[in-house]
Amino acid sequence: MFIISLTYKKSTEEADKHMAAHMDWLKAAYASGTFLASGRKVPRTGGVIIARGERAAIEALCASDPFAIHGIADLDITEVNFTTTADGFEGLKD
Predict the structure, then answer these.
(1) Which CATH superfamily is domain 2-82 in?
(2) Which of 25, 35, 72, 93 could form a disulfide with 29 if both were Cys (CB 3.0 to 4.6 A apart)?
């Protein structure tokens, strides 16, 4: 399992210019079963994604994010081995 943390390097106005393409990228990753959850950080300084798959595939996917391509955000990938979850979230365990 992976936690992907996006941190904006440019303004939210600049991020908004690429938001539609970023959302298309997210939707494709959800459709493939790679992304499990995502959302904006509060305050809006970036976002967080929970993903599953092989590290090389996650790295390649992150490199294809329009936010990465256009230098809008840095994407930091952290691998996590969840061992304990609340009821209903057992699918997060490896």
Answers:
(1) Dimeric alpha+beta barrel (3.30.70.1060)
(2) 35
pTM over 0.85: yes
Q: How buried is residue 54: exposed, middle or buried, by Cβ count under 10 Å (0-12/13-18/19+)? A: exposed
How far apart CA 73 and CA 64 sit, in angstroms, is 12
Residue pair 26/40 in contact by the 8 Å Cβ criterion? no
pLDDT one digit per residue (tens) for the chain, 94 residues: 999 999 999 999 999 999 999 999 999 999 999 999 999 999 999 999 999 999 999 999 999 999 999 999 999 999 999 999 999 988 887 6
Domain parsing of the chain, residue ranges: 2-82
Cβ–Cβ under 8 Å, residues 52 and 34: yes
With vertex at residue 8, the alpha carbon angle to CA 7 and CA 9, rounded to the nearest 5 degrees, is 115
Which class for 50: exposed (0-12), middle (13-18), buried (19 or more C-beta within 10 A)? middle
